[in-house]
């Protein structure tokens, strides 16, 4: 084991622990994440690493992201219940209090409403000032996609966009969108779309080969009606832990639609068809099986 690397890791441990805590909201899980990261780092080649602190941050962030995704797949207790348990004698209460004071329990509750990828992008950029190039690597998405994740999370944290809250509401709206699209029901689509809804489609999702942005309920509804044929081979699934639409051809996912819900309407739709972008999404069937 490289003693120099061990010493430098210990030097950065408080920072890495803070990153993990902001991601996971639990001192014990943060310690587990840092320890897991160290086991990986100890076996890695670090001679060519120019910015060790940033590299270590990325490793811990990836470990924390995997832990968050695993937690959601297991459907563990809500985060507010975790906070209550920790306040009633959780592990290492002194350190818990120090970290909780630095982050703010209210903020942690809001962060828990974000998807794992949104949470990581927001934490790494807004709290630790990492560039989106590095954040994109951590969440396995492009820098532009990482920027969008952080922006969406920032709006929710600041209160301009409420957290998803009720997953049942998200599912109902996605179900309604799919049903209206399949039948070409323009009026039904207008009822569930926010008047200022924005749809963004990547260059692989449209025939012209260029990204498309549609604004307004009428434009988005017209586009949905025009895609009725594709909707017939589209199903509801979980994408990064929230209800979304997945189109699969011959067993392979070809298009994914993710939704942002505001109040009782859909305020944003992202259409992903880029193979690299699809590969980065965590897609599961509603029964928990990987699609």
From TrEMBL:
SUPFAM superfamilies: NTF2-like, Sigma2 domain of RNA polymerase sigma factors, Sigma3 and sigma4 domains of RNA polymerase sigma factors. Residues 9-74 form the RNA polymerase sigma-70 region domain. It holds the Pfam family Sigma70_r2. InterPro entries: ECF_Sigma-70_Domain (IPR052704), NTF2-like_dom_sf (IPR032710), RNA_pol_sigma-70_dom (IPR014284), RNA_pol_sigma70_r2 (IPR007627), RNA_pol_sigma70_r4_t2 (IPR013249), RNA_pol_sigma_r2 (IPR013325), RNA_pol_sigma_r3/r4-like (IPR013324), WH-like_DNA-bd_sf (IPR036388). Residues 143-170 are annotated as: Disordered. Keywords: Sigma factor, Transcription, Transcription regulation. One of its GO terms (molecular function) is sigma factor activity. GO terms for biological process: DNA-templated transcription initiation. Residues 106-156 form the RNA polymerase sigma factor 70 region 4 type domain. Interacts transiently with the RNA polymerase catalytic core formed by RpoA, RpoB, RpoC and RpoZ (2 alpha, 1 beta, 1 beta' and 1 omega subunit) to form the RNA polymerase holoenzyme that can initiate transcription. Belongs to the sigma-70 factor family. ECF subfamily. This is RNA polymerase, sigma subunit, ECF family.
């Amino acid at each position: 084991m490289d003693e120099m690397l061990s010493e430098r890791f210990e030097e950065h441990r408080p920072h890495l622990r803070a990153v993990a805590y902001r991601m996971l909201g639990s001192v014990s899980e943060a310690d587990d994440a840092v320890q897991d990261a160290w086991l990986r780092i100890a076996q890695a080649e670090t001679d060519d690493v120019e910015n060790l602190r940033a590299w270590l941050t990325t490793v811990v962030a990836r470990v924390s992201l995997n832990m968050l995704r695993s937690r959601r797949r297991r459907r563990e207790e809500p985060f507010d219940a975790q906070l209550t348990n920790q306040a009633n004698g959780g592990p290492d209460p002194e350190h818990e209090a120090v970290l909780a004071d630095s982050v703010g329990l209210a903020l942690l509750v809001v962060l828990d409403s974000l998807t794992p990828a949104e949470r990581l992008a927001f934490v790494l950029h807004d709290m630790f000032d990492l560039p989106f190039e590095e954040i994109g690597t951590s969440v396995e998405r492009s820098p532009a996609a990482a920027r969008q994740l952080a922006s969406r999370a920032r709006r929710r944290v600041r209160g301009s966009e409420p957290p998803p809250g009720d997953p049942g509401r998200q599912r109902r709206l996605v179900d309604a969108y799919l049903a209206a699209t399949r039948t070409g029901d323009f009026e039904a689509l207008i009822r569930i779309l926010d008047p200022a809804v924005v749809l963004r489609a990547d260059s692989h999702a449209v025939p012209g080969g260029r990204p498309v942005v549609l604004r307004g309920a009428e434009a988005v509804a017209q586009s949905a009606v025009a895609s009725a044929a594709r909707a017939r081979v589209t199903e509801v699934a979980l994408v990064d832990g929230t209800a979304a639409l997945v189109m699969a051809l011959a067993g392979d996912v070809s298009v994914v639609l993710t939704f942002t819900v505001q109040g009782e309407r859909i305020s944003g739709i992202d259409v992903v068809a880029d193979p690299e972008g699809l590969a980065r999404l965590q897609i599961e069937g509603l029964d928990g099986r990987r699609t």
